[in-house]
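Encode chain A's predicted structure.
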Amino acid sequence: MFLPDFSAITVDVILIAVLGFIFLLQAIYFLVVYGKVAFHKSGPSQNNSQPPVSIIICARNEGDNLTEFLPEVMAQSYPEFEVIVVNDCSYDNTEDVMREFSKIFPNLKAITVKEDGYYTHGKKFALMVGIKGAKYEHLVFTDADCKPASKNWLSLMASAFTDKQKIILGYGAYFPEKGFLNKVIRFDTFLIGLQYLSAALRKRPYMGVGRNMAYKKELFFKSKSFSSHYHIKSGDDDLFINQVADAENTGVVVATDAHTISHPKKTLAEWWRQKQRHLTTAPHYKTGTKISLGYSFALNYLFWGLFITCLCFKTTMAIAGGLMFLRWMIMLLIYANAAKRLNEKGIVGLWFVFDLLFLFIYPALHLTKRFFRPNKWMN
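Encoded structure for chain A:
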């Protein structure tokens, strides 16, 4: 009986074989999962209804941003909508700004939440106040520092609602500005968008961003609002969606006109604190979500670790280099097409730099988040 000579299999052969296997898994992941956004075609909505909509914006010391962006929200081309701005204990000129805008826009409703020395609250309380004050069933959410990408933003988001689709996820981008940090922030946002939008298109939704999302009021109260995670300062968007979204009730709007855009952080320290804040919710995701997200990160670290190891052997150096080249070509294909869908310009050309850079950024964020002390109000 013939048996293979396993003694001829050396360490370098095993390493390159495992590297090839990891490459195959990662290639499939990029093409099958991220390809959902990269090759997504936004056709005309099959739902022509335009239900009345309540847009809800929570604002804490956002007078300047409201002055700049609220007129863009009020100018939406939509037959019937109201805009509710919850002024949550602001001590800047937010109240004055809202008073003046209320004279101009009859469909603007301002709600002020006063500071209470005996009871402290965060953004979730302000959102609940806004939701309870909304007169329409269909709710669309954005932030005070966000600008709709077009006058059709509300129409595109609202028309995605159906009898089954009670949650609509959109994309929240950042303005392109000068500097490498801006590109880092925008690429990170692009990757996150690629992840959660692709997951939702695959009928496995797990999060959304408060800068651009929508859901029905009925769903909010039926799921007992934020009760399961009210004690966590953040998570009014991602934790809520992680809690209530499923394969049937979640829709996605990728169209460029349906995006929102906001100003990114100006310094590394500010962005780092923002990322630490966002990461405080990740441990509270469903187990399946954590496994899925961990899978993609594990593949990335495994590939890089094996690739560097294979470069130490002359026999595997060329093959490892070839696999890295093929990997980068697949990444370029996916990132370039996804960037077109999400209208992200000027960041894809540095994808290979970010591929390596984020190997260090993400572990550092997770290590330092334990020292993060959240404020009462988190955006």
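The chain is about 50% helix and 10% strand.
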